[in-house]
Each structure stands twice: as C-alpha cells, then as structure tokens.
Design brief:
Strand order of the largest sheet: 2-1-3-4-5
Number of strands: 5
Largest sheet: 5 strands, parallel
Helix content: 25-40%
Order of helices and strands: EHEHHEHEHEH
Length: about 160
C-alpha cells in the first residue's frame, strides 16, 4: 500500500493537446515513489464532442474546474508549445491564485520561456524544468525559478511578501 506521505493532490493545468505529457509527468513522479492524484480535466473524445456541440456552458465548465482546483493542494501548469495562448489555462491559474493555491510551472519537453502563460508569470510560485527533484521541491514549497534546461532564471515578478 502506498504511503500517504508521498501522496500529492494536484490539478495539472495544460493545453489538451498535451494530455500525453500529463500522463508522462505523473509517471515520472510515480517512478520516484510519489502517488499523484490529478483532478484536472482530460479531453476524452466524448468530452471533446460535447464541447464542439456547445452542449456544456462556460459557466458549468468554470464551476467544475473551480471545484477540481479547490480539491487540489497545488496547481501544476504544464508548459508546452501552445500553453501561453490557452484562455482556459490562464483562467485556471487565475482561479488557483484566488483560492490561494501554490502554482508551479513545469516545462514539458520542448517547452520554452516564450510558452509561459501570462497568468503564470504573474502568479507563479515556482517554474522548473522536467526533473522530479525540482518538481517535487516546488510542489512542497521551494520557490525556485528555472529555464527549461534547469538552470536558474530571474523570477518573473519582483513582488515582495510581507507578514504583519
């Protein structure tokens, strides 16, 4: 039986063309002993059909996503080739920020700094390369900012936090 100390409840925000990368990410972490529970929405063929037929309203989608983000302890944004241009990804990041969630960007294979969504640049707690150690450290609280190859980068915002 898997230890709950290695369990992480995540919402993995991604462009649906990167669904396979979401599976690779959870497999990467599972290979190092982490039990990842992902609450993100995967665009299965039946869901894609409903979306194309406009049988699901935007308000319903927002409500479902909000509930799934609430359940997660952190939001991981998979940074792929077209992630920066996806309005739902930015909406999910904004919602996670409203809920006070930790928001971590992870570069997918081939992802670049130009692919970082604007909301992740604004609200990201960490942005890391495709490396289990860096990913888990970021999920667990390290505020590290990296380039896709794992070398350090300047944090996107210089906002300071104060404790009163």
């Amino acid at each position: 039986m898997e230890s709950t100390s290695n369990r992480r409840h995540l919402f993995i925000s991604h462009h649906h063309q990167d669904d396979a990368e979401v599976s690779k990410l959870t497999q990467l972490m599972a290979g190092k002993g982490y039990d990842v529970r992902n609450s993100s929405v995967r665009l299965k063929p039946e869901n894609q059909r409903r979306m194309e037929e406009k049988r699901v309203s935007e308000k319903v989608i927002q409500r479902i996503l909000s509930i799934k983000i609430t359940w997660a302890s952190a939001v991981v944004v998979l940074i792929g080739k077209d992630t920066h241009a996806r309005p739902w990804v930015n909406w999910e990041i904004d919602k996670a920020n409203e809920q006070g969630k930790r928001i971590i960007g992870v570069y997918a294979r081939g992802g670049t700094e130009a692919d970082i969504p604007p909301s992740l640049e604004k609200y990201g707690s960490a942005i890391v390369g495709w490396n289990t150690k860096s990913i888990m450290a970021a999920i667990d609280g390290t505020n590290e900012f990296q380039q896709p190859n794992g070398t350090p980068r300047v944090p996107p915002t210089s906002a300071s936090s104060y404790t009163c």
